[in-house]
Amino acid sequence: MGLDLFFYPEEFEGPFVVLGKGETRYDKRFHQFISCMIVLDSNLNLVRLFPIDMERFSTFKEFDFVKVRIEKRNYESHRPETRKIYPSTIRYSKETFHFTLPFETGEVLHDGNWKKMHRSVALINPRELRIRQKWNEYTRIQYFCDFEGCNGHTNKLDAYTFEQVAALERENTAIGFVLGTHAGYPHRWLLVSAIRAEN
Ligand SMILES: [Zn+2]
Q1: Rounded CA separation 53/107 (Å)
Q2: Measured in angstroms, how far is the CA atom of residue 94 from the centroid of ligand 1?
Q3: Which residue ranges form the domains of the chain, and what is each CATH number?
Q4: For an engineered disulfide with 128, which of 45, 107, 144, 170 has Cβ 3.0 to 4.6 Å away?
Q5: In 61-89, which positions are buried (b, 16+ CB within 10 angstroms) versus exposed (e)?
């Protein structure tokens, strides 16, 4: 057995696979524009790395392997998958691992258990995408997950994520959605990233 999500030591450095980058926003706690990354560890746990200085680290993209020093495991009680990192220690990793993306059914978005479990990251296969409505720098999309009785989910995408969706659709590739809950509204799922469903 490897290291468990909640028990790996704070000096654990990865490697992690990048699955998505959150939207960059001004954070009063850090007095700068920062983001987060959703990554996968070698036990296929989804983890949020925070804070990421996107100006310096915009080069990292989906499916890159990175290493980073963890400063704190339990940084956000409402988003337990968050790991506070030492931002300057993030780097590409030569060490890699084989992985299968840990997709789950859309039930996670419907059954309410994720609230009780304080889940704040998820990886799903959208069954159908609809509505692309542009407004300002965002595009609103609606998607249906594979949960029977799903009435659709609506999210706004920034230009980067929308381009990810558009590129995968052009290639006619199966799409995976990396979801994360909002820092300020932990009962709301955001679409963090659209990735190739097969790695
Ligand atoms: Zn659904």
Answers
A1: 33
A2: 37
A3: 16-92 (no CATH), 106-196 (2.40.50)
A4: 144
A5: ebebbbbbbbeebebbeebbbbbbbebee
What does the longest C-alpha to C-alpha distance in the chain come to? 48
Question: Which tens digits make up the pLDDT trace of 103-131?
Answer: 999 988 887 766 666 788 999 999 999 86
Tell me the average pLDDT of the chain: 85
Residue 160 CA to ligand 1 centre (angstroms)? 23
Q: What is the mean pLDDT of residues 96-104?
A: 95
CA distance 81 to 118: 9
Distance 125 CA to ligand 1 centre (A): 10
Q: Would the pLDDT of 5 be above 60?
A: no
CA of 146 to the centre of ligand 1 (A): 6
Is this prediction's pTM over 0.90? no
Q: How far apart are the first and last CA of the chain?
A: 23
Q: Which residues surround ligand 1, an ion (CB under 5 A)?
A: 106, 109, 145, 147, 150
Per-residue pLDDT band at 42 (split at 50, 70, 90): very high
Tell me the C-alpha to C-alpha distance, in Å, between residue 162 and each of 62, 83, 171, 183, 194.
14, 26, 14, 21, 8
- SS3 of 119-171: the string is CCEEEECCCEEEEEEEECCEEEEEEECCCCCCCCEEEEECHHHHHHHHHHHHH
